Amino acid sequence: MRRCAGVPFAAFVGLLLVGVMVVLGSGAVAQTAKSHSHAHSKAAKKTTAKKTSSKEKKSTTREKKTSARTAAKTTRRGPHASASKRRAGSGKAASHRRHHTAPKATARSIKLTSAFHATEQLRPMAQQLTATRSPAAYRGVESYAHSHPGEGASAAYLALGHAYMLDHKYDDAANAYRQANRSGKALDDYADYLGAQASLQGGHGADAYALLDNFADRHPGSIFNSDAPVLLANAYLQQLNPQAALKALEPLEDTQQASHVGFRYVLGRAYQMSNDTARAAAVFRGIYLKEPLSFEAGQARTQLVAMGVPLTAAERKAHADQLFNAKQYSAASEEYHAIASNSAGLSASDLDVLKVYSAVCDMKLKHISRKQVEALPETTGDSAALKLYMLAELSRDEDDEAGHDALIAKMIQQFPKSRWLEEALYSGGNMYLLKHNAKQATYHYSTLVKMFPQSTYAPSAHWRAAWMNYRLRNYAEAARLMDEQIQMYPAGVEVSSALYWRARIYEDEEHNFGQAVNYYRTLATTYTNFYYANLARQRLKVLGDQPAVAPSPVLSAVPQLEVPELTGDLPENDIHLIKARLLANAALNEYIGPEIQASETSSEWGALAEAEIYASYGEYTRSVQSMKHSGISFYSLPVDQVPTLYWHLLFPQPYWPDLVSESKKNGLDPYFVASLIRQESEFNAGAVSRANAYGLMQLIPSVGKSMAKKQKIRHFKTTDLLNARTNLELGTMNLKQVLDRFGGQKEYALAAYNAGDSPVRRWMSSSDYKDIPEFVESIPYSETREYVQAILRNREMYRVLYPGS
């Protein structure tokens, strides 16, 4: 999260209105720098370098940041420590780790396991019902319930209840959950809690009393135990019994549940209905100000209005600022305008400031012109800096470098501590990076780091300054900055890059081969499966044996690797694991993860269990996603330190025969194709992106049609691209053509696959890259750079995991 510090807004009558820091959150260069369109590129449609939010980029960045964060959590390695002393030192060490003893079979676990096996045939029907909710799907599950009495029927009725809830048929849902409860007991806590939800949604809160009363006593260990009292309180409120609601909530006042916005809103409503206006107002105000993005924030404001308790202009301004921070520009603009329209007690200067804040929302929504910005009133303080920032951004859009730089200089002189200057410097650096103006980019990034050393942008800006110096062949300054990067920002995602390129300077420019080896080894052992770790191992082979030299003290800042306690053996008698499997049979997918995490030992096996549940039904996309979201730093971990099952779930082989066959037809490496598909669609054959790209290899319709014509496929339809075999046939053919256009160079081809041919040829035209890795690091679109690195990294993972496949 970006930091938020207060900035002055204006002096209101009788108070000082303090504005919450407004945050642009422009992020990496692919999020802040303008992109150029390309007629045949899906990336050109879904991505501009100013704003990037594609699933692929988020996935790439998430995996990269998770690895970096996990590597940085532990203590620093001493300058003379060897890799052999690290906890991750050997596979033997991993095999001797202590794990919790698996629970023994109990009467309950045996019954649950029996229920799981009794409902295995329900799973495809239940999953189809959840996905389509068609009349035929409903009939199929109903028929299953009638023909499988006991736990089979219970699971089927849970699936029906869940589907009815999705269709907003609350009475039908409540009836289905009642039948689930009567039929079996394996998931009776789900039948009770979800049944109570359905009754409440259907306006029959009194029916929920018996289902929720003493819930934790009746269902020990249920994941709903902390939420059941809140739902019960809601039921009482619906039936106009606030005192009973307060009584239900009282036991939770000193628990973690009391911090949840849902709990606080219900508590506020209970106070309100009890005519305790002061307490109710305090609760609602807290929600409105501290949870501005929650659904309850709007409800809280409604209740404050109903009670005749006005929000101050300062409070509403703070709320609007937080909406802006979350990039909800339309909502923020409406709030700023609403404050101004209710201007009683506001001075002329206050109204002027509100106009400036409203204008920045319009700028983010591209609803404002230079003339309109220039016409904004002259103010002082933060809003004056904001106006200059907007003008600088407009100059950037207009390609007016001189105007842009003059505005930056003015901001440095007049508002040296303004958050808007911080934003303007980062945006300006990104602009010049895209323009290949290394000197100006370096100036903007370096100035940002100097003036705002604690900025969220600082690690990225510092690295880009280092890299620009490298590209300018200012090797001494680049080396200094790279070492500084490692020491100042050891938790940053840029450390692996800094280690590699500092090693290259040692090797290529300083001819200190021993120290280069130290850096390469540190990189290869700390960031084991990163893109740059693979390059480091290649350099180590080239350098061979070198005389040993004392490691640079800089390397002591590199975090040690901590290998998590993971087991490949699932505790088959764990109640939560069995229930999670049973939930999958009933298609209650959203509860699988929480149920697994409820087990005290799930940190050792939970990621494996959840991914296996999905993979067992061929849901490879969900399986891969669950592993990515597990928080485990797989790319920092040696392959032999993690049970093989984890790796195979993280890098699966669906559609493998067809993938290999079509790859070979086009002279492609199957591992390369698999890695690209994993990045593009996570093996979801039915994926359709916002950029209108289809299927496994995310082909846009025009490309699919062109390839189909060359393959003489008759009556081709765009929806044919959702057929895995067809997509592989046409996708590998297209990938081969992209490779051929770039002389078979995978890095160029991947960049073009993501960003389009034109930008890549523009980047290539510099022709001053020493080698391909330098080209890759110099790609100015962050999404594209990370995309290329991720696919090449993952290709190596496939090779290691499936030799000879």
Question: Overview of this structure, please?
Answer:
The two termini are 42 Å apart. Helix 31 packs parallel to helix 33, helix 33 packs across helix 35 (644-650) and helix 37 (670-680) packs across helix 43 (782-801). The chain has 805 residues and is mostly helical. The longest helix is centred in the last third of the chain and has 20 residues, at 782-801. The protein is globular.
How do the strands of the widest beta sheet line up side by side?
1-2
Find the count of extended strands (DSSP E, 2+ residues).
2
DSSP strand content = under 5%
Fraction in helix: 55-70%
The biggest beta sheet is recorded as: 2 strands, antiparallel
Count of helical stretches: 43
Rg over CA atoms: 29 Å
Overall residue-averaged pLDDT value = 89
The assigned structural class equals mainly alpha
The CA-CA distance between the termini, in Å, is: 42 Å
Query: Which residues form runs of ≥5 with pLDDT under 50?
Result: 1-57, 73-96
Shape: globular
List keywords for this structure.
single chain, 805 residues, mainly alpha, two-stranded antiparallel ribbon, 1% strand
List the helices and strands and how they pair.
Layout: E1 7-12, E2 15-19, H1 29-32, H2 42-46, H3 55-72, H4 91-95, H5 107-118, H6 123-132, H7 135-147, H8 151-166, H9 170-183, H10 188-201, H11 209-212, H12 215-218, H13 228-238, H14 242-249, H15 261-273, H16 277-290, H17 295-306, H18 313-325, H19 329-341, H20 348-364, H21 370-374, H22 382-397, H23 401-414, H24 419-434, H25 438-451, H26 458-471, H27 475-488, H28 495-509, H29 513-526, H30 531-543, H31 575-585, H32 592-597, H33 602-615, H34 620-628, H35 644-650, H36 656-665, H37 670-680, H38 701-710, H39 724-741, H40 746-755, H41 757-764, H42 772-777, H43 782-801
Antiparallel strand pairs: 1-2
